[in-house]
Amino acid sequence: ILRNPIVLKIYSQSSLFLYHSSNHMRNTHFYIYYFLVIFSFISCSSDPEYPESHYKTLELIDKYGSIVKGDWHRQYISDNQMLFEQLHLNGDSTMTGYVKWLARKKVSVEGKETWTDWDTLADDSLKGTWRLQWRNGTDYIILITNGLKPHNIKWTNQAELYYATNESLHIHSSISGKPVEYTRGTTDADF
Description:
Layout: H1 5-43, H2 52-68, E1 70-77, E2 81-89, E3 94-103, E4 106-109, E5 112-115, E6 119-135, E7 138-145, E8 156-164, E9 168-172, E10 179-184
Antiparallel strand pairs: 1-2, 1-10, 2-3, 3-6, 4-5, 6-7, 7-8, 8-9, 9-10
């Protein structure tokens, strides 16, 4: 049978085809296995790496999150300022509250120093957001308002959180530059 040129030609072509097909299949299998190995290393990589601040913020939220939520107030009265703040820190990181802020100056009238009348800097409700955050070795409570009338004061108080208990919240205010203590609950201003 192999001596017949037509059969030989058919046998030769089919043999080449078979040889080519099996080579092609070997190459295809090699590439499939190669990509499977590569993708198995990619898909088996460890969980994403988060910075230290992420984990420290989660610890801060676990420690103080439930304590900080709720109603807080503070009042500060000096010779030249009277400030009252009432804050409600909601569980969804929104904040509502009320601010009353009066100020006066010392002036000289006919050579005699006297105080001016009280000027109202703020006497309005406020809305905003709050969050706990750890950054550069410090625990923060960040309070952001959307604006206070009549001066449309928008402030961000990135206050260092000293500690919080069920009755008091102790922070170092970035606005006043001083330690500030809030007391749990609601009340009215004394002025």
